[in-house]
Amino acid sequence: MNYFPDEVVEHVFDFVTSHKDRNSISLVCKSWFKIERYSRQNVFIGNCYSINPERLLRRFPCFKSLTLKGKPHFADFNLVPHGWGGFVQPWIEALARSRVGLEELRLKRMVVTDESLELLSRSFVNFKSLVLVSCEGFSTDGLASIASNCRHLRDLDLQENEIDDHRGQWLSCFPEAYTSLVTLNFACLEGETNLVALERLVARSPNLRSLKLNRAVPLDALARLMACAPQIVDLGVGSYEDEQDSESCLKLQAAIRKCTSLRSLSGFLEAAPHCLSAFHPVCHNLTYLNLSYAAEINGSHLIRLIEHCKKLQRLWILDSIGDKGLEVVASTCKELQELRVFPTDLQGGGNTAVTEDGLVAISAGCPKLHSILYFCQQMTNAALITVAKNCPNFIRFRLCILEPHKPDHVTSQPLDEGFGAIVQACKNLKRLSVSGLLTDQVFLYIGMFATQLEMLSIAFAGDTDKGMLYVLNGCKKMRKLEIRDSPFGDTALLADVNKYVTMRSLWMSSCEVTLGGCKRLAQKAPWLNVEIINENDNNRMEENGYEGRQKVDKMYLYRTVVGTRVDAPPFVWIL
Amino acid sequence: MEICNSYSSSSVDSTNPSPSESSVNLSLSLTFPSTSPQRARKQDWPPIKPRLRDTLKGRRRLLQRDYDTCLFVKVYMEGVPIGRKLDLSTFSGYESLLENLSHMFNTSIICGNHRDRKHHVLTYQDTDGDWMMVGDIPWEMFLETVRRLKITKPERC
């Protein structure tokens, strides 16, 4: 029943911004569904193959902002072969043909071409914001189109993309007079940067708040840029070869001191250690510090920097900081909410830079901690139990012990009890990654206690199908499940087909799932695309004599309302 | 450097040992470099993004008593903007390094001890970021701490 005219209801809906909430209100009644449809501004599509552009436009004709995600998460780790999919071109073509006044496009793990970027730049007069995360397939020519044609561009944010750097003049393509740029992030570009064009651009961008430079911006250029843009809030320092020029250093220090709004610092690729100290004066205001690429800086210099960062909320760092460094973090950064510690030694031999002690210290010292990603060589159940006691507020807990199947290094037991303690204590846990030696028991705990869990990553864990079944039966809110190198097979996969209605996707690679099992699932669940990814496309499993029993190397299934996709490459077989 | 693991996937090995057996066996074989060539090429473990993986590969590595580590460092000649790259692990000591560098840059280069106006002097940047004269410390120690090399004009030292 509506007591108010539509315009009033719509106005109320304006205050409802989260996707989940808007989805909920659209289910209340037909009238609300209709009003919500026409007023939805931001559309989020977690899997670009779950729907197609035509249906999107039929449902939401008036949106301004679109977020699209393509490849599954494990694509970040080279598990999805090149060419699998996630092409944005059909989306942009469809939107360009429609009357949608697109202003923002956020893409993650998608294939973007220069043609797509050119079309995007020419089709939407009010286009303001382009955010590309972990995408590939385009070059600086595409960036030049965006710069030239999007006259109201506010954000150009390129995070960790594979961009073909043609060393063109894309930086010179922005509007001559002044630009409306607020965010400019090109840290992932590998080539030379036209420093003159960059400085001119920054000088004529008075609204610039976030500037992230690439490798090719040296120290003296950085100093000049910061002098041009003292209003900067978020700075990504490029790299600088060691400059012995003390005058450059002094200029940089002077420029940094003027940046009183600086809250966020990142970059430092190939940076020499002594340049870090130039930033000490601004450290006390920093809320986000990302030193995860500063592989050349050793622990003691990192510690000296962090000692000044009392207001830090998010810290991304390499394990060269060591347990001692983490103790410093624990005693200094009382506002810390998110910590990521990345590995430096990928070979896994000897160097125990951070251990369970560092993790325990952080959990004890940082009361606001709710998200952690921790790579380490060793762990114990006792430490995890202590962490669980200290930090019952985890929303995201990702632990990666570098050596697969590694047990508790003190007791040689599996780490079931440790992770069990985490899921039992952390009632709001939404995301979990487990590692180390784990039996089916840990999954019993997860199924029993992790009631809010939405995303689970499993690698080299479990004993039998029971493990996976515990999770599928227990975690009612599971959306994304990704499993690799674990002995789960058809029994678990097929036990409860209806589970795959509420889940967005399931990835299983190097498990015990067979082709026959996948085929049976595809039959029982027509709302799913069950993809078999077989890189060796000369070895199509249909032709193989062992059809049903053949184990599947990679399987990716996801719910969709538009059936089999038409853009799958030869090595993807959709059942 | 290939990053991989020797724990073969179940799809490669069709006759799996029982899970508890395999975990005991696997935890004994601690070597990361894989016996499986597929894993070596794939570089899918540990789960870090390609950009970080590349950054770490480019980083100077501790020299181990091992066969296939190499130690490429950048070498600049003062006054010349374009540098060279050199694999220090191919040299037996300071003498062969100097000989090779002199040949590469077509000038005579010496270590710190016998300074005179005629010869270039070889310096290096260590892990602390400090520039030091080459030749003071034992060769093995030098290999562990060197990050890059610079051939300076004699007057600077």
From TrEMBL, chain A:
Source organism superkingdom: Eukaryota
SMART domains membership: FBOX, LRR_CC
InterPro entries: COI1_F-box, F-box_dom, Leu-rich_rpt, Leu-rich_rpt_Cys-con_subtyp, LRR_dom_sf, Transp_inhibit
Localization annotation: Nucleus
Predominant location: nucleus
GO cellular component: nucleus; SCF ubiquitin ligase complex
MF term (GO), any: auxin binding
Pathway in which the depicted protein is active: Protein modification; protein ubiquitination
F-box domain: residues covered: 4-45
UniProt xrefs under Pfam families: F-box_5 (PF18511), LRR_6 (PF13516), Transp_inhibit (PF18791)
Alphabetic keyword roster: Auxin signaling pathway, Developmental protein, Nucleus, Ubl conjugation pathway
GO biological process: auxin-activated signaling pathway; pollen maturation; SCF-dependent proteasomal ubiquitin-dependent protein catabolic process
Entries under PANTHER family matching the protein: F-BOX/TPR REPEAT PROTEIN POF3 (PTHR16134), PROTEIN AUXIN SIGNALING F-BOX 2 (PTHR16134:SF132)
Name the record gives this protein: Protein AUXIN SIGNALING F-BOX 2
Gene responsible for this protein: LOC108813211
From TrEMBL, chain B:
Region entry Disordered, spans: 1-48
Protein name as it appears in the record: Auxin-responsive protein
Record's compositionally biased regions (Low complexity): 1-37
Function: Aux/IAA proteins are short-lived transcriptional factors that function as repressors of early auxin response genes at low auxin concentrations.
A Gene Ontology BP annotation from the UniProt entry: regulation of DNA-templated transcription
Pfam families per the UniProt record, alphabetical: AUX_IAA
A GO cellular-component term linked to this record: nucleus
Subunit structure: Homodimers and heterodimers.
Subcellular location as annotated: Nucleus
Alphabetical UniProt keywords: Auxin signaling pathway, Nucleus, Repressor, Transcription, Transcription regulation
Keyword DNA repair on entry: no
Domain PB1 as annotated: residue spans: 70-156
